[in-house]
Design goal:
Blueprint: E1 6-8, E2 11-13, E3 27-33, E4 38-47, E5 50-58, H1 68-73, E6 88-93, E7 96-101, H2 104-112
């Protein structure tokens, strides 16, 4: 099924409740692992419990979303309270137990959180 879209001044827009923009066919997702934590980025591949994530950020701590599901769909209402370190080009995680597709709003919110450094 084709997504609803609108073109304004040569720019194509889709409603926020649709999937986030893809990067070379990869979807922007939140990946929860058994023991390595939570990551957000473009899922390059997944095979069993192994996932390769591009432009990945570890979601070390978040506030302003009741769950990862809300973070993926709506983003955070408290970006200044979140602790998301810098983007890594590529990370391979094992024991991936959940992969959640992000909405455009969720993706923008996660990517908009400032880089947390210790």
């Amino acid at each position: 099924m084709e997504k609803e879209k609108m073109v304004i001044n040569g720019v194509t827009y889709v409603p926020e409740n649709q999937a986030a923009p893809e990067l070379d066919g990869m979807k922007y997702c939140i990946v929860r692992t058994q023991s390595a934590g939570v990551f957000a980025g473009y899922v390059e591949s997944s095979n069993g419990q192994e996932a390769v994530i591009r432009q990945a950020r570890r979601l070390w701590y978040w506030d302003g979303a009741a769950s990862l599901s809300q973070l993926a769909m709506s983003g955070t209402s408290k970006p200044d309270k979140c602790k998301f370190p810098e983007v890594m080009d590529r990370v391979t995680v094992t024991q991936a137990i959940e992969i959640i597709n992000c909405s455009p709003a969720g993706m923008r919110s996660i990517q908009g959180v400032g880089v947390w450094k210790a």
